[in-house]
Amino acid sequence: MIDLYYWPTPNGHKITIFLEETGLPYRILPVNIGAGDQFKPDFLAIAPNNRMPAIVDHDPAVGGAPISVFESGAILLYLAEKTGQFIPKETRQRVAVLEWLFWQMGGLGPMAGQNHHFSAYAPEKIPYAINRYVNETNRLYGVLDRQVAKTGASLAGDYSIADMAAYPWIVPYERQGQKLEDFLHLKRWFETIRERPATIAAYAKGDTVNRPKEMSEADKKMLFGQTATSHRAV
């Protein structure tokens, strides 16, 4: 059994997509990031960066005590290695998957996240910041578009954890100021993943989590602007 500490965000959806694809048994433990659940000491013990998702694998392949993993990319890699699925064994193919997984973790996710922040959540609209991140998101969409045009299918050959990592960050494309019609290869890739049964099931799981439709000012204060001394484990 996998305990998944989760909230229905792009990073959370990555993990439910993988778990639904593989059929690994799991249970969702909601981490309400607007209410500050991510700062609770018991969560900090498995996720020292105060960010979801995180997992606890109660049946690790190596046996022994449960293994906890934080950071969505590390979780995907751990689960892929545990199951032997969605990551190639051949070295060159494996390197390609890891390149695109790290590209998402270091580029697409952080840049789209800043896009969301300055476009939707920042208390003041700063045109330079909005343009900076909308344009960088656009550039990254272009990178993804060219890659799937070259492969003809997924980011790195067969469907893999790299695709699972990138897809949820494209879902809110309108919110990011992007048009899929400008990226026809990306659009084809996106629509193919969207129709996978596991993707549909994963997003349906997210809909079962009781989250507020609008982020309150208190939620924003909890999420943004934290410092090292804002919350301490007790």
UniProtKB/TrEMBL annotation:
Coiled-coil blocks: none
Occurrences of domain GST N-terminal (ranges): 1-87
GST C-terminal domain segment(s): 90-222
InterPro entries per the UniProt record, alphabetical: Glutathione-S-Trfase_C-like, Glutathione-S-Trfase_C_sf, Glutathione_S-Trfase, Glutathione_S-Trfase_N, GST_C, Thioredoxin-like_sf
A Pfam family that the UniProt record links to this protein: GST_C
Alphabetical list of SUPFAM superfamilies matching this protein: GST C-terminal domain-like (SSF47616), Thioredoxin-like (SSF52833)
Sequence similarity: Belongs to the GST superfamily.
Name used for this protein in its record: Glutathione S-transferase N-terminal domain-containing protein
Naturally occurring in which organism (per UniProt): Lichenifustis flavocetrariae
